[in-house]
Amino acid sequence: MTSYAAPLADMRFVMRELAGLDAVAALPGCADATPDLVDAILEEAAKFGGEVLAPLNQPGDRQGCVFENGVVRTPDGFADAYARFVDGGWNGVPFDPEYGGQGLPWLVSTAVSEIWQAANMAFSVCPMLNQGTVELISAHGSPEQKALFLPKMISGEWSGAMALTESQAGSDLAQVRTKAVPDGDHYRVRGQKIFITYGEHDLARNIIHMVLARIEGAPAGIKGISLFIIPKFLANADGTLGERNDMRCVSIEHKLGIHASPTAVMSYGDGGGAVGYLLGGENRGIECMFTMMNAARLGVGLEGVAIAERAYQQARAFALERIQGRALGGGDADPVAIVHHPDVRRMLLSMRAQTEAVRALAYFVAACLDMAKRHQNEKVRRQRQTLVDLLTPVVKAWSTDTGIEVANTGIQVHGGMGYVEETGAAQHLRDARIAAIYEGTNGIQANDLVGRKVARDKGEGANAFIAMVRELDRELAAAQGDDIAAIRARLAGGADALAGATRWLVETYPSDPRTVAAGAVHYLRLLGIVAGGWLMARAALIAAAGPAARGGDPDFLRAKMVSARFFADQVLVQAGMLATVFTQGAAFVRHEGPEGT
Description:
Among the domains are: 8-64 and 74-155, Acyl-CoA dehydrogenase/oxidase, N-terminal domain (Butyryl-Coa Dehydrogenase, subunit A, domain 1, Orthogonal Bundle); 158-286, Butyryl-CoA Dehydrogenase, subunit A, domain 2; 458-591. The chain has 20 helices and 12 strands. The chain has helices at residues 8-18, 21-25, 35-53, 57-63, 78-87, 106-119, 121-140, 143-155, 285-321, 342-374, 378-414, 425-433, 442-455, 460-478, 482-508, 513-518, 520-545, 547-550, 554-570, 575-584, and strands spanning 66-68, 71-73, 158-163, 179-183, 186-197, 206-215, 225-231, 233-235, 241-244, 247-252, 263-268, 274-278. Helix 1 crosses helix 10 (342-374), helix 14 runs parallel beside helix 17 (520-545) and helix 15 (482-508) runs antiparallel to helix 17. Helix content is 57%, strand content 12%.
């Protein structure tokens, strides 16, 4: 497997030029996020990812996790790497300094997290889930709960897990059967959960589970679900560990990928009942859990970015070294590296351009999240929150679909060697595949987008975003060059296709939601490639201005223009087709019955 080097030049470019790091750093509480500090953080993260986490990726995949007598052991080296991760303070980058965090913007945390995920996706899931748990307690916990749990979780000494899924329920959380019974100042919880990532492991001293359960006598369905904090070890008032709670790992799953990440079946309350602390009030479990789920969906979308980057680096290195075949149209009879063959170049450019587009969108949404949380102007906060809400399912689904596509193409670049585990290319595809499934399958994300995010507000948020895309046209029109002209034409066509599809969605959904839902994934991809095309066009404008205007490397800027032009010509051009499929392609899908399956 090729070693991993964080793409710091592109990460800095996206943060500064496309996501607006300067504007984020000007927000209240973000003054420390200076370019020099951010550069230093990225450099240190790149060293840790490349030197500590990446070397464990392939060995960890081979060894996997071991479950024995209720104990889960992660692969060799993981516990030491996690201890170094905690010692480095990496877990607390975006969190409140009052509880030991560094208080840096989510934009910075997002870039750092991409490095962990690309270096070792299986390892990175643990801190990603912990961050979501910290957000959940920060948003909904009582002062006592915050004081007890947040310092240890922000440091990483304790980790967090999300326990939603049950075998009979899956994504339909209304079917949750886990029960909670009041018992003094806490509850006794009994039930079983499946697919609990890092629900049991040997990295942290304590594991804090966020568990959905139904209080005895609560209403049926979603409205009767509450959320509970269930620690593996009960915590004393001073933060020291007390007795073991009544919860245990029953087994761990044997999976397609991320073998070094334990996925547990957890049983709560086999004895007297697991001690659980109500979080956020009775019957507010789903409302509270969405705080964590939305954070996790952005985190999972970033996994798509990260695995795409890792697969691209692997494929590019192989293509530069693999000697095979004569150069097409050349007079030299000697074989050349396959990077010289047009189809291989096409595949590599496709991998690179799509990776850059999904990175740009993920970072842009992270910056919007910072604005929504911290900006002093309420109108700006609302506008940015609307963008976050609209684009969160797109980041999750489009980025993870792209990660799978890029990893799959990476195997193709390797040819037969890609199908052999020895090269490591296959691991990237196996690892990438889960990201389109967990935290709500990508079909669920698409339904959320068309139903809750577009139809509910009659397209207001989507149309506001389309207006942002169209505003760029004036700048593109004023710039020179054939590449910019081509990108401008493709982006205008994409905006038109998205606007037409949005109008049809808003008109059709109230009377015929099934037809809209049948093509929801196409609308989500359409929005994704237009958003990605918009950001790539902005990058092209900067590249067209030349290094004198930005103090940039001319080779880097030329590569940016190539990526933007390729994305416009071979990805953004699909917008019209996706709009057609979305609005006209559901004639049979929307009908039930065996003839439709």
